[in-house]
C-alpha cells in the first residue's frame, strides 16, 4: 500500500513564541527534521510538509531530506486550512498519514504501528486517548478536503466515521508541545 506522509507545520506557534517548524531541542535537534524522519523511517513512501509562518526559514531546515513542500497561503486561518492545503497537494491516489510537527516523542515506531493496521481510518492512541498520526484512506481524502476549513480540522469528520484506534502509549506520550 502506497502511503504518503503529511506533516503539518504551518502555524505561527503563538503559545510557543515562534513557529514550531523552527523549534530545536536543547541538543540542537530540529523538530521539523525529526518529524520528517519519523514519517520516512516509519514507512511512508513520500513526505509532504505543509508550511506557512516562517516558510522560507523552515524550508532551509529540510535540506538533504526528500520531501515535497506545500505552502498553505491561508495558514493563519488555522489547522483546517493547513490540512486542506496538504491533502489537496497530495491528492487521492493513496492513503495519507497525517502528523504534526509538535509531537517530538512520536517516532518511526509509532508511524509503523499505525501504518500496519491497514484500515481506511486509523489513528494513534496514547493510553486510550486519540492522537496523531492519523491514517486517512484513499476513499476519505476528497470528503475530508471538503469538510475541513479555517480552524476546523479533521476531528468532526473522524468523530462521524468508524476510526480504528491503534494503542501506542507504550511507545510515546503523543503529547503536543505548545510551550517551551
How is this structure best described in words?
The protein is α/β, with parallel strands linked by helices and 180 residues long. It has one domain (3-167): Spore Coat Polysaccharide Biosynthesis Protein SpsA, Chain A (Alpha-Beta Complex), CATH 3.90.550.10. 31% of the residues lie in helices and 23% in strands. The protein has helices at residues 31-42, 55-61, 79-90, 108-116, 138-147, 155-159, and strands at 3-9, 46-51, 68-71, 95-100, 121-126, 129-136, 164-167. The chain has a seven-stranded mixed sheet with strand order 3-2-1-4-6-5-7, sandwiched between helices. Strand 2, helix 2 (55-61) and strand 3 form a beta-alpha-beta unit. The longest helix is centred in the N-terminal third of the chain and has 12 residues, at 31-42.
Amino acid at each position: 500500500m502506497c502511503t504518503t506522509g503529511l506533516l503539518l507545520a504551518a502555524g505561527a506557534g503563538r503559545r510557543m513564541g515562534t513557529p514550531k517548524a523552527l523549534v530545536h531541542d536543547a541538543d540542537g535537534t530540529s523538530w521539523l527534521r525529526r518529524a520528517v524522519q519519523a514519517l520516512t523511517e516509519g514507512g511512508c513512501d513520500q513526505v509532504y510538509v505543509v508550511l506557512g509562518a516562517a516558510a522560507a526559514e523552515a524550508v532551509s531546515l529540510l535540506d538533504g531530506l526528500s520531501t515535497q513542500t506545500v505552502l498553505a497561503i491561508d495558514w493563519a486561518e488555522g489547522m483546517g486550512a493547513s490540512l486542506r492545503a496538504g491533502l489537496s497537494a497530495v491528492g487521492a491516489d493513496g492513503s495519507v498519514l497525517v502528523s504534526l510537527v509538535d509531537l517530538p516523542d512520536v517516532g518511526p515506531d509509532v508511524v509503523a504501528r499505525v501504518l500496519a493496521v491497514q484500515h481506511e481510518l486509523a489513528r494513534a492512541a496514547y493510553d486510550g486517548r486519540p492522537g496523531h498520526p492519523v491514517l486517512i484512506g484513499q476513499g476519505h481524502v476528497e470528503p475530508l478536503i471538503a469538510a475541513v476549513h479555517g480552524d476546523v480540522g479533521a476531528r468532526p469528520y473522524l468523530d462521524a466515521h468508524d476510526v480504528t484506534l491503534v494503542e501506542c502509549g507504550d511507545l510515546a506520550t503523543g503529547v503536543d508541545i505548545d510551550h517551551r
